[in-house]
Automatic annotation (TrEMBL):
InterPro entries: Hemerythrin-like (IPR012312)
Pfam families, per database record: Hemerythrin
Lineage: Bacteria, Bacillati, Bacillota, Bacilli, Bacillales
Domain of life: Bacteria
Protein name: Hemerythrin-like domain-containing protein
UniProt domain Hemerythrin-like: residue ranges: 23-137
Length: 141
């Protein structure tokens, strides 16, 4: 998911919005399955949600770190620092996903795992907002 879309603010914003709204929908669906006690379906949905974070969000992060950040920062020291911080956000998302990978087989989609899934949504939303503000000069709200 590299290419010119990352460099265009509008297209990049659309990638962020699409990935986030899909994650929110799938997380809410998973929570309902758990509440209804549908454990087999919940387990499947949790695996799919985990796969969604890897393919839609972590792969986007990987693509950004494979040249896009470097290109946007150039020789500007403020932007170079911004890119270090944004990369750390990616690392935190990766660590939470790794924790979910470890916990899911043990407990299935239990409340502890839901807490991790919701933390991904919050951190990713803040990260995307900051990324757009810092790299595209967007001062939203
Ligand atoms: Fe990012
Ligand atoms: Fe991004």
């Amino acid at each position: 998911m590299g290419g010119p879309a990352l460099r265009q603010h509008h297209a990049h914003h659309a990638i962020h919005e699409g990935a986030l709204s899909g994650a929110i929908d799938k997380t809410e669906e998973l929570e309902i399955l758990i509440q209804e006690g549908k454990s087999a379906e919940a387990r499947l949905a949790a695996d799919q949600l985990l796969g969604y974070w890897v393919t839609r969000v972590l792969s986007h992060a990987d693509a950004e770190e494979e040249g896009f950040y470097e290109e946007m920062a150039g020789e500007n020291p403020d932007l170079r620092l911004a890119v270090v911080k944004l990369t750390r956000d990616h690392d935190i998302l990766r660590m939470i996903v790794a924790d979910i990978v470890n916990e899911l087989p043990k407990d299935g989609p239990a409340p502890d795992v839901m807490r991790l899934f919701y933390s991904l949504i919050t951190i990713n939303a803040i990260h995307s907002r900051e990324e757009e503000r810092l790299l595209f000069g967007e001062h939203s709200e």
